[in-house]
UniProtKB/TrEMBL annotation, chain A:
Protein name, entry field: Coatomer subunit gamma
Location relative to the cell: Cytoplasm; Golgi apparatus membrane; Cytoplasmic vesicle, COPI-coated vesicle membrane; Endoplasmic reticulum
Natural source organism: Zophobas morio
Annotated family: Belongs to the COPG family.
Main location as per UniProt: cytoplasm
Automatic annotation (TrEMBL), chain B:
Function text: The coatomer is a cytosolic protein complex that binds to dilysine motifs and reversibly associates with Golgi non-clathrin-coated vesicles, which further mediate biosynthetic protein transport from the ER, via the Golgi up to the trans Golgi network. Coatomer complex is required for budding from Golgi membranes, and is essential for the retrograde Golgi-to-ER transport of dilysine-tagged proteins. The zeta subunit may be involved in regulating the coat assembly and, hence, the rate of biosynthetic protein transport due to its association-dissociation properties with the coatomer complex.
Native source species: Zophobas morio
Protein name as annotated: Coatomer subunit zeta
GO BP term (any one): retrograde vesicle-mediated transport, Golgi to endoplasmic reticulum
Membrane topology field: Peripheral membrane protein
Family note: Belongs to the adaptor complexes small subunit family.
Gene3D superfamilies the UniProt entry points to: 3.30.450.60
AP complex mu/sigma subunit domain ranges (all copies): 12-152
Subcellular location: Cytoplasm; Golgi apparatus membrane; Cytoplasmic vesicle, COPI-coated vesicle membrane
Signal peptide annotation: none
Keywords: Cytoplasm, Cytoplasmic vesicle, ER-Golgi transport, Golgi apparatus, Membrane, Protein transport, Transport
Quaternary organization: Oligomeric complex that consists of at least the alpha, beta, beta', gamma, delta, epsilon and zeta subunits.
One GO CC annotation: COPI vesicle coat
Taxonomic placement: Eukaryota, Metazoa, Ecdysozoa, Arthropoda, Hexapoda
């Protein structure tokens, strides 16, 4: 009995795990047994298992340790025990990347792979390829070719898979095995067929014609393996996407026919492909949708999941097509798998009409308390999308959200609700008052400091512009009395915003700030004193610069610049103007982020490094190039401009990097000719008047299928701003050396000069302007009046037919940042005022007001205020 | 939605893992260098994955950019991970193959203790199912036939006492179940 008890206890505390307390050093010690003259198979297998277990648990071996153990392991080839031998192969694969001189076992493995024992052969091939490099591969090439067409399916599969791994090391060698792979596609074994197709496609994928032929042949011969058919569907879909032929092509027919395949895997793959093809029309979508609809009712969770996830994607592009499945989707809302349920809801919300919003919200309310936080977040995101789609429903949604805010929940969940309310407020002015009121109430009992701080910041920004700002102040001041120092400090900043924006409240605010100066916390006292003294000055421009506007520079760059400054002290004071300005993410980017997260649970894993701006990345790259570092800080990098068609011999793209007085043109060139090696690649420019080319940095070598970069440094026209907008002719110049397409080595040392015409390159106004976000544009505008030069002009934009179009074009052309959400044109209006802000290279502020009126095209009155008259003139003169 | 057309490649499996009922790793392999490159990240992911899946037996979950299909038995959890756009049914077929192979290797006795006792064979089976992210075989019978089963060919005398007791227990269990 007592023995039984002990046994039970042992089982409970995991004492049954024989691998629990093993240590690396002990195992390495034990591994010396491998060197014994007579090998104890069982013992060695056990030790080897322990070693592999340790490695699998994440234990690291040093190179010496690994090499030692690897060499003793090779002794085990003497044993004939099948398991032990197979474990040795595993060990070889594990250690091949750490240990030195692993090629020592090549001959043993070659012997095994060509031997009689079938249990060895397949595994030996895979182990062999893990230790082989490009040069060694040539020597085993013969065996590999034989193995690919071997009658034993395991051997053939192993050889094919290993070949695919080897293409990374020696693509040229593997290419020569294409005939064998071709033969293997006809194999009866389903896995061999699949692997052969994978290899074949990989070898040929750069050759469009060959892929077309391959697909044409295989679609006719009905493959046995469902995996191979899935692969073929993917290849076909890719081909369809690249081709321009209509959807009545045989390729599309093939995919459609796969919807009737007997394997669910293939049916789903085909439906997925049809849904994701960009030009699928709703009519062509119908059969795919009905297949997915069928899957929605499947007893298998995975199948339901796959179906609803795909329907969710369809709902983005063809919401109408999915409505047929609405009933099935509603059934899935109560699915036991919460991923399926949430995807079903988000899909429904996307397809739902305005009239069904109320019903859907009721449905969600019925189960929202049962689901976990992550899924609640997904639901909240769906509600956000809904609110943006149906702004008139904001009151229903807002009430729902505030009810959710009051419920229990973690920080992430609460933050996402607050985020959603904030988005709704920003997007829909009508919802603002109600939304702010909800948020005010929420901070009354919000246990998350970071969230409270964010909301206080928002209240400070938006609160002063409500009808009754004093109402908010009460809530904010309550925080000062009740909360921890961080929240108190944020509350003080928020109050200061009210003081700066609402003159009639200033006096009261000063009283409150005076009280805060007695606070027990340093930061709170400091802030209160700071704001109180600024507000005491009664100077509008001070308010603007030090209370209302936030820091414009990019924080990582500021950190770097400050670090550099402190490391090399100089007498000069630190100049914040030298720090690059933070780029403002475009709307598309933020949209993209949103779509990515659909239905996905993202955990807060290890923190990712702070996102560095594109400019920051370029700045780092450019500063490494001699001659560019001394140009000063990078001001702006333009988007990529393509200077050739994408399917030509040489593919050239340009990025324009703008500095204070210089512009650096970065040309990324791709050589698509396999029989040419290009040298001394450079771009010869024919600059417009005033520009001078200072330097060319050629790309020394440009082999086939590689991207090389060449730079041209130009100086902007001095004291001649109007000419800084210009068009350059461009020619790509280089030395061609013919070479062997297989090896990439040139046939001769002698090359010949050649050139290639590129499209003209434009330096536009937008290239020289960086966007700046002005929180309080109106104040900045008024403040600028006495300091700036003002230019005004009226234009008629006859090519534009709507205000939205005009706004979009103006923003794009000028490269300025719209302020106060003036890029959104309210529906049904015929006049609109667009407010823009930015900075010209050299740190010259620009403010632009564009009054637009719609009547037979768009008429625009453009007013520019800038600290530099020439810049203002440049803007007014280039528009039009 | 753009770009979600799947790239035709054989590299479909991002990872395979077998965890115990405390979420500790018994065996795990990650095949994509860009997905959880360090042991620390892998552990964090597994911990998270386990916490999300050990209660709800729901078969599939999307987590941290991966689609994970899973299956559990007694005190073991089997996972197969693929990219978030991957064909879930293919991943499921890999998972089923993994589970069925282990089940056959352990003679339907799928539990932690048994896996640890035959860890070498289970390792070999995992290696036969997926190599560097490519599915080698998804048929459990053929996987099992490729990893030579051993238990029969050990003479009784060479087995340790514990093993004898274990096999006796097993026999007893089966006879009770009949």
């Amino acid at each position: 009995m007592s023995a039984f008890k002990r046994d039970k206890k042992e089982e409970e505390d995991g004492g049954g795990n024989p691998f629990q307390n093993i240590e690396k050093t002990t195992v390495l010690q034990e591994a010396r047994v491998f060197n014994d003259t007579t090998i104890n198979n069982r013992k060695c297998t056990h030790i080897l298992t322990k070693l592999l277990y340790l490695l699998n648990q994440g234990e690291q071996l040093g190179t010496k340790e690994a090499t030692d153990v690897f060499f003793s392991m090779t002794k085990l080839f003497q044993s004939k025990d099948v398991i032990l031998r197979r474990m040795v192969y595993l060990g070889i694969k594990e250690l091949s990347s750490i240990a030195d001189d692993v090629i020592i076992v090549t001959s043993s493995l070659t012997k095994d792979m060509t031997g009689k024992e079938d249990l060895y052969r397949a595994a030996a091939i895979r182990a062999l390829c893990s230790i082989t490099d490009a040069t060694m591969l040539q020597s085993i090439e013969r065996y590999m070719k034989q193995a690919i067409v071997d009658r034993n399916s395991a051997v053939s599969s192993a050889a094919l898979v290993s070949s695919l791994h080897m293409t990374k090391l020696a693509p040229e060698v593997v290419k020569r095995w294409v005939n064998e792979a071709q033969e293997a596609v006809n194999s009866d074994n389903i896995m061999v067929q699949y692997h052969a197709l994978g290899l074949l496609y990989h070898i040929r994928k750069t050759d469009r014609l060959a892929v077309t032929k391959l697909v044409a042949k295989l679609t006719r011969m009905s493959l046995k393996s469902p995996y191979a058919v899935c692969m073929l569907i993917r290849i076909t879909a890719k081909l369809l996407e690249e081709e321009d032929s209509g959807n009545d092509s045989p390729l599309f027919e093939f995919i459609e026919s796969c919807l009737r395949h007997k394997s669910e895997m293939v049916v789903y793959e085909a439906a997925h492909a049809i849904v994701n093809l960009k030009r699928t029309t709703s009519r062509e979508l119908a059969p795919a949708i009905s297949v997915l609809q069928l899957f929605c009712g499947s007893p298998k969770p995975t199948l339901r999941f796959a179906a609803v996830r795909t329907l969710n994607q369809v709902a983005i592009s063809h919401p109408a097509a999915v409505t047929a499945c609405n009933l099935d989707l509603e059934n899935l809302i109560t699915d036991a798998n919460r991923s399926i349920a949430t995807l079903a809801i988000t899909t429904l919300l996307k397809t739902g009409a305005e009239s069904s919003v109320d019903r859907l919200m009721k449905q969600i309310a019925s189960f929202v308390s049962e689901i976990s936080d992550e899924f609640k977040v997904v639901v909240v995101q769906a509600i956000r999308a809904l609110a943006l789609k149906f702004p008139r429903k904001h009151s229903v949604l807002m009430n729902f959200l505030s009810a959710m805010l009051r419920d229990e929940g973690g920080l992430e969940y609460k933050a996402s609700i607050a985020d959603t309310i904030i988005t709704i407020i920003e997007d829909n002015p009508e919802a603002k008052e109600a939304g702010l009121a909800h948020l005010c109430e929420f901070i009354e009992d919000c246990e998350h400091t970071s969230l409270a701080v964010r909301i206080l910041h928002l209240l400070g920004k938006e609160g002063p512009r409500t009808k009754q700002p004093s109402r908010c102040i009460r809530f904010i001041y309550n925080r000062v009395i009740l909360e921890n120092p961080t929240v108190r400090a944020a509350a003080v900043s928020a109050m200061a915003q009210f003081g700066a924006t609402c003159p009639d409240l200033l006096e009261n605010i000063q009283v409150l700030l005076a009280r805060c100066q007695m606070d027990s916390d340093d930061e709170v006292r400091d802030r209160a004193t700071y704001y109180s003294s600024i507000l005491g000055q009664q100077d509008k421009s001070l308010y603007n610069n030090y209370i209302l506007e936030t820091l414009q520079v990019s924080i990582p760059s500021l950190e770097r610049s400050l670090k550099e400054y402190t490391q090399s002290p100089s007498d000069q004071p630190f100049d914040i103007k030298t720090v690059p300005i933070a780029t403002i993410p475009t709307r598309e980017e933020t949209e993209l982020e949103k779509h990515k997260a659909e239905g996905m649970i993202i955990s807060n894993g290890p923190a990712k490094p702070a996102v560095v701006s594109r400019e920051e990345n370029f700045a780092e790259k450019l500063s490494a190039i001699p001659g560019i570092a001394e140009l000063g800080p990078l001001f702006k990098s333009s988007d990529v401009v393509e200077l050739t068609e994408s399917e030509t011999e040489y593919f050239v793209r340009c990025i324009k990097h703008c500095f204070t007085n210089h512009v650096v043109l970065q040309f990324d060139c791709l050589n698509t000719l396999s029989d040419q090696l290009l040298e001394e690649v450079r771009v010869q420019l024919d600059p417009s008047e005033g520009y001078s080319v200072l330097k060319e940095i050629p790309c020394p070598k440009l082999p086939y299928n590689e991207t090389g970069t060449t730079y041209v440094v130009l100086r902007f026209p001095e004291n001649d701003l109007p000419n800084s907008v210009g068009t350059f002719g461009a020619v790509l110049k280089f030395i061609v050396k013919d070479c062997d397409p297989n090896t990439g080595l040139p046939d001769t040392d002698e090359g010949y000069d050649d050139e290639y015409m590129l499209e003209d390159l434009e330096i536009t106004l937008g290239d020289q302007i960086q966007k700046i976000n002005k929180a309080n544009w109106a104040a900045a505008w008024d403040e600028a009046a006495p300091l700036c030069v003002e230019m005004e002009d009226t234009y008629s934009l006859s090519s534009m037919s709507t205000l939205e179009e005009a706004v979009k074009n103006i923003i794009q052309f000028l490269g300025l940042q719209p302020a106060e959400r003036s890029d959104k044109v309210p529906e049904g209006k015929t006049t609109h005022t667009l407010l823009l802000a930015g900075m010209f290279r050299g740190g010259i502020d620009i403010l632009v007001r564009a009054k637009l009126a719609l009547a037979d095209g768009v008429t625009m009155q453009l007013t520019v205020r800038s600290t530099d008259g020439d810049v203002a003139e440049l803007i007014t003169s280039t528009v039009g | 939605m753009e770009g979600s057309l799947l790239e035709p490649t054989l590299y479909m499996v991002k990872g395979i893992a077998i965890l115990d009922n405390d979420g500790n790793r018994i065996l795990a392999k990650y095949y994509d260098k860009n997905v959880f490159p360090t042991a620390k990240e892998q552990r964090a992911f597994e911990k998270n994955l386990f916490s999300k899946t050990h209660r709800a037996n729901a078969e599939i979950i999307m987590l941290d950019g991966l689609t994970c299909v899973y299956r559990s038995n007694v005190d073991l959890f089997f996972y197969v991970m693929g990219s978030s756009h991957e064909n879930e049914l293919i991943l499921m077929s890999v998972l089923n193959c993994l589970y069925d192979s282990v089940s056959q290797i352990l003679r339907k006795n799928v539990e932690k203790r048994a896996v640890l006792d035959s860890l070498d064979i289970v390792m070999l089976a995992m290696d036969e199912i997926c190599d560097g992210g490519i599915i080698i075989d998804a048929d459990s019978n053929s996987v099992v036939s490729r990893v030579a089963l051993r238990n029969d060919d050990i003479p009784l005398g060479e087995q340790t006492v514990a093993q004898v007791i274990q096999s006796a227990k097993e026999q007893l269990k089966w006879s009770l179940l009949k």
